[in-house]
Amino acid sequence: AQLDTLDIVVLAVLLVGTVAYFTKGTYWAKQADPYGGSLAHANGAKAGKSRNIIEKMEESGKNCVVFYGSQTGTAEDYASRLAKEGSSRFGLKTMVADLEDYDYENLDTFPEDKVAMFVLATYGEGEPTDNAVEFYEFIHGDDVAFSEGGGADDKPLGNLKYVAFGLGNNTYEHYNSMVRNVNASLEKLGAQRVGEAGEGDDGAGTMEEDFLAWKEPMWAALVKAMDLEEREAVYEPVFDVVERPEMDAEEDEVYLGEPNKNHLNASQKGPYNAHNPYIAPIAESKEVFNTNDRNCLHMEIDVSGSGITYTTGDHIAVWPTNAGKEVDRFLTVLGLADKRHMVISVKGLDPTAKVPFPSPTTYDAVVRYHMEICAPVSRQFVSTLAAFSPNETIKAEMVKMGSDKDYFHEKVANNNLNIAQLLETLSERAPWPSIPFSAFIEGLHKIQPRYYSISSSSAVQKDKISITAVVESLAKPGAPHIVKGVTTNYLLALKQKQHGAPEPDPHGLNYALTGPRNKYDGIHVPVHVRHSNFKLPSDPSKPIIMVGPGTGVAPFRGFVQERAAHARAGEKVGKTVLFFGCRRKSEDFLYEHEWDQYKKDLGDNFVLHVAFSRDGPKKVYVQHKMKENAAEINELLQQKAYFYVCGDAANMAREVNTLLAQIIAEQRGLPESKAEEIVRSMRSANQYQEDVW
Ligand code: FAD
Question: Which protein residue's CA is at the shortest distance from atom 52 of ligand 1?
Fold first, then answer.
């Protein structure tokens, strides 16, 4: 039959619509700018770069791409390590790629002679990391639509060779669900996995060893699958670090710790987000308790005028600065102390290598603001550095540590050493001048903002965000080094300064509190807000039960503050039950007197159950208090109470989950399996929410 004009018009419209659908508007709309506004340019002009990974690989002559889905930087670091090893040991032409920088509709045209590696962290309740959300929704969706029309084919990814490793935590219910689900989706789409899909477990503290154990058989399988040849790995730097003696560190274009171009210019500009912190004034700071071995800080961070908004239950991220003492140690052991303010330009030797900080900069700025120099040392990194040892004896020791897991644990991990402490111990403080600076840029994590559960209510103080943080100080019996938390000691130093200490110096750590070019002077700290799903019911008359021992009480202070405000405004507020636990009433009972005030506002609708673990002959924890109040808990749950847990993920949160099922089983006379099912369905209906770390 012939087509008349109307048919043709209809077909043309349909065709345009279909193309628009399958290309997700790529040809029609300006590409989404992942950083928003002016920051795109501030951050190395990402906008305008191709989102086509296959084209990018062709252009740059790559045959292996390592994608990462990373929240705290570990997955990104593992991705870089795989890329590096693939290149130095097997001659692969590798590149690392942030999952959010590419589109995936053309994965069905991925060439057969190349390989894609996926290093995927699972975040929170089995969720993808922020940068992997789009990829995950695409690949795990019900109808994956590829641009070559592969959707009609039941094996559209038949050509794709891939490798997968996941980073998870077995204390969470959805352990490693990201790598498991992506692996299942890729298999379903016909892709060919090389080696096993690996799983690293942060909960058991074996992430690094799991990774090392997974990658050897994976490489062996890849050698077969791609017909590779292993060669002796020789270190090749990824970054070119050029000293610029002709430049002065004070010149306007030199980054002295500013996170991006926006901050280098005179005044900072929003929007503020994970790529662009706001240098916020600290309105108030105090220690809510302070004992011989522990301090807990309460801070009020002023975000007025910044455009930053939050809702009760969100997180605030603090961008840390390394302690002066550790920066000095690091620069000294590398022999860089004398030229710490030398201007350096850093660029990738390969067009796909991304420098993790802005340049030109100085050694001091990189080490102080951009590298995680205090973290535990990776065994693989020790192997890499062995070649640059100052003498053969030290080299032999480094090689042994790098290859013998038990020896490494005995000498390094169990002693809580950071990298500079290890190097200076081995060399008896003699410098290690031959390690290329690039090796540290590659081998150490990019410094990560630390998250805090906001402990105020946005309904009560929308412009001031509270933090409740315990200052980390970890002394392991027998270990020579006490680990002092980077961020919490930085915050403690700020608090001391705010209270008039002329040279705040918590534990001799000596932070550069006024920041790059004194931009943080007057007690400021760089922050951004991360929105969470940990939320009060929108109807305040619904009952809630909260379990938050220690600093786990942080968000619940915000919750109770909010409900007290509703009550003061004459609104009906449901039962508000809080289980809190600490060591002693006289020592670390957080916000003891504030709860009395909330009690006045909420009356009998506020019930606080406190467990003291060291006040009596018997240790009492929140779990004991929950058991004692099982009938009340059950009754409230039957009235559809929301149940919240915050704090320690490793033990407490898991035990509370199990206990809740036991309470339900006992109180309702149900078999435990049935009660467990009820708890699971509470979770999926968001009636059971966790904020754990
Ligand atoms: P880091 O320097 O990061 O050290 C942390 C720990 O790592 C040390 O105690 C030690 O166990 C280990 N470690 C570090 N270096 C070494 C080494 N060289 N050798 C061996 N071990 C080492 N905390 C709060 O206090 N309050 C909150 O409300 C809160 N909310 C959070 C919410 C979320 C969503 C998350 C993810 C975390 C939250 N945290 C909270 C924890 C917080 O983010 C930080 O992890 C914590 O404050 C420690 O940070 P730090 O930089 O001081 O310590």
Answer: 485
Do 119 and 163 contact (CB within 8 A), yes or no? no
Q: Is the CB of 487 under 6 A from ligand 1?
A: yes
- Ligand 1 centroid–CA 415 distance in Å is 18
Compute, in angstroms, the gap from residue 314 CA to the centroid of ligand 1. 18
DSSP one-letter code for 255: B
Residue 453, ligand 1, Cβ within 6 A: yes
Does residue 691 have an active-site annotation? Answer: yes
Residue for token pair 């379990």: 547
User: Topology of domain 39-226, per CATH?
Assistant: Rossmann fold (3.40.50)
User: What integer pLDDT is reported at residue 201 of this predicted model?
Assistant: 95
CA–centroid distance, residue 485 to ligand 1 (Å): 6
Q: Which of 179, 199, 177 is nearest to 187 (CA)?
A: 179
How does DSSP assign 102-142, residue by residue? ---TTGGG--TT-EEEEEEEEETTTEEPGGGHHHHHHHHSS
Is there an atom of ligand 1 within 6 Å of 566 CB?
A: no
Does residue 553's CB lie within 6 angstroms of at least one atom of ligand 1?
no
The domains of the chain are located at 1-30, 39-226, 240-267+323-443, 280-320+449-530, 544-692
Position 480 pLDDT exceeds 80: no
Specify the residue with its C-alpha closest to ligand 1, atom 36.
693
144's tokens: 């994956």
- 511: Cβ below 6 Å to ligand 1? no
CA 472 to centroid of ligand 1, rounded, Å: 7
What CA–CA distance (Å, rounded) separates 643 from 640?
A: 9
Cα-to-chain-centroid distance, residue 683: 23
Q: How does pLDDT run across 646-671, given as a tens digit for each residue?
A: 999 888 999 999 999 999 999 999 99
Q: Separation of 523 CA from ligand 1 center, angstroms?
A: 22
Same fold, 39-226 and 544-692: yes
Burial category of 429 from C-beta neighbours within 10 Å (exposed 0-12, middle 13-18, buried 19 and up): exposed
Q: Give the model's pLDDT for residue 265.
A: 83
Residue 377 CA: nearest ligand 1 atom is: 18
What are the beta bridge partners of residue 117? 66, 163
544-692: which CATH number, 3.30.70.100, 3.30.420.40, 3.40.47.10, 3.40.50.80? 3.40.50.80
> Using one digit for the tens of pLDDT, what is the confidence trace for 525-582?
999 999 999 999 999 999 999 999 999 999 999 999 999 999 999 999 999 999 999 9
What's the pLDDT tens digit per position in 115-155? Answer: 999 999 999 778 999 999 999 999 998 888 888 755 456 88
646 is catalytic: yes
Could you tell me if the CB of 374 is within 6 A of ligand 1? yes
Q: Write down the catalytic residue from 389, 453, 456, 458.
A: 453
**Ligand 1 binding pocket includes 452 (Cβ within 6 Å):** yes
Average of per-residue pLDDT across 399-408: 96
Supply the CATH classification number for the domain 240-267+323-443.
1.20.990.10
Does the pLDDT of residue 468 top 90, yes or no?
yes
Whether residue 601 lies in the annotated active site: no
Residues 6+ apart with CB under 8 A from 600: none
Statement: residue 307 has pLDDT above 50: yes
CA distances from 330 to 17, 160, 327 (A): 58, 43, 5
278 CB under 6 A from ligand 1? no
240 in catalytic set:
no
Considering only CA atoms, which residue is closest to atom 25 of ligand 1? Answer: 469
CATH of domain 280-320+449-530: 2.40.30.10
Q: How confident is the model over 329-337, as a mean pLDDT?
A: 98
